[in-house]
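Hi everyone, sorry if this is the wrong subforum. Our group has a chain we'd like a structural model of before ordering constructs, and none of us has done structure prediction before. Sequence below.
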Amino acid sequence: MNTLDSTATRSLAGIVPAPKPHWVGDGFFVHGYFSVVPDLARRLSPFVLLDYHAPRVYPPTENMRRGVGPHPHRGFETVTIALEGSVAHHDSTGAGGVIGPGDVQWMTAGAGILHKEYHEARFARAGGIMHMLQLWVNIPAKAKMTAPTYQLLASDAMGLARLPDHGGIVRVLAGSYASASGPARTFTPMDILDVRLNAGGSVTLDRDPAWNIAILVMKGSVRIDGGREAKAGDFAVFANDGRATTFAALAPETHCMVLAGEPIDEPIVQYGPFVMNTENEIRDAIADYNAGRFGELAE
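Answer:
Right subforum, don't worry. Here is the predicted structure as tokens:
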């Protein structure tokens, strides 16, 4: 890692092209970026997973279970961002709901939860385009066993910053950009920004060099700090060698998701749907799940 510089512009550490997509359950066809880059969960802490569901047309169906059946989580948060299409969910605490275009479901798994998510009934019957992404966000050790809870963040609750010279808009889901702030409550400082740029529009982030920053390009393409181009499907990861991170649209209707966060400087031990700090804690999670301590959830 480069020596931290409090004034320099960050350099680009690398660009990860879209990995081959795979099915999660029978309802989500995703690109899993963290699975193809060794140690990316540490490198981009507090983020430990990114599954991107690029736009895909699903035909109408009467299958109201199209999605992912009951599965456990412990030790982190899932952040599901709906861009097109609608997803329903239920869990072992009795909570449930629907997120549609522009909404975010922020689930704190904490001490343990059983969860299922599937295409919302009206969307399933009508069919249409599904475009979503899901992040897994780590929780510090002192808070990992917090009680499970939800934040249902509606589209109209997001902070909104308009870029100068009709450059585009920044929707703030978490953290801040310019004078806009997002509605999400987080355990550690972070920014999640939904950025839509017109050709020539640009965004500059000024963050502590210790923060980790990455950009997922979902449509169009961007020029990063006047240098390399990142196109749709690319995941650009930045080095920790300066404060400023700048990217500009090379195409109209460019769409990106920006992830930035203060790293959690603790060990990460991940085993499937559990993210803990030690192997013993993973074994405890498996034992608690097998013993039914995550509650019950019907198919």
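For your construct planning: The chain has three helices and 26 strands. Residues 279-290 form the longest helix (12 residues).
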